[in-house]
């Protein structure tokens, strides 16, 4: 907490030394919608971010962003795919995939005035956490087979990421601004539930695991910015 307070005080100090109109901070929250492969086994998620911005000119800003996004497993979709493959078991699991991205980016404002659409580009890294716990449940009629516990699994790491975005900036007062933006995010070497035809081997109950690959998602967020 002391470290966080020191960072905030430092930002306020430097913003007072330099031009007050050049620095801004902001917070946003909204939806994180999976795209492509990530939609197969994960539900729509949610997230948010904090931003520190510096305006080089009226049209161009550099932005540091720290975010948070999380998705829970779509257990119904996973079991439906197993059923379609005539598997004799279903999965009763709890799993999530969480990321904390760190971006440095640029934003270009298309117009001037109170209403300011913009586009942006961000790149950086993200830390991730993939967790899974649960059981395998037999679906053979009349068979009295107990649930098979799946060993708890957790994967963490750090990989690279980038994002392309469009947004809208609206001036509410001298210091306060409303921001709405959407971004297409790509995360490399990420972990998610693996394909269901590989998802469980009765001889080896550890075969539910995260599989690495490049995944994508859209974020739709809104928030408030304060310009010093």
Can you give a write-up of this model?
By secondary structure, the chain is mainly beta. The chain has one domain: Porin, CATH 2.40.160. It has three helices and eight strands; from the N terminus they run αβαββαβββββ. The protein has an eight-stranded antiparallel β-barrel. β4 and β5 form a beta hairpin. The longest helix is centred in the first third of the chain and has 16 residues.
Features:
eight-stranded antiparallel beta barrel; Porin; 228 residues; mainly beta
Quick recap of the structure?
The chain is elongated. It has a single domain, classed as Beta Barrel (Porin), CATH 2.40.160.20. With 228 residues, it is mainly β.
How are the SSEs ordered, and which strands pair?
Elements: H1 2-17, E1 23-35, H2 38-41, E2 45-55, E3 60-72, H3 75-84, E4 89-109, E5 115-138, E6 148-171, E7 176-193, E8 210-227
Antiparallel strand pairs: 1-2, 1-8, 2-3, 3-4, 4-5, 5-6, 6-7, 7-8
- What is the helix fraction of residues, given as a range? 10-25%
Q: In this structure, how is the largest beta sheet organized?
A: 8 strands, antiparallel, barrel
What is the CATH topology assignment? Porin
State the strand order across the main sheet: 1-2-3-4-5-6-7-8
Instruction: Choose one word for the global shape.
Output: elongated
- Total domains: 1
CATH class: Mainly Beta
Low-confidence stretches: none
Annotation, overall tally of beta strands:
8
Per CATH, the architecture is: Beta Barrel
- Rg over CA atoms, rounded to whole Å, is 22 Å
H and E order = HEHEEHEEEEE
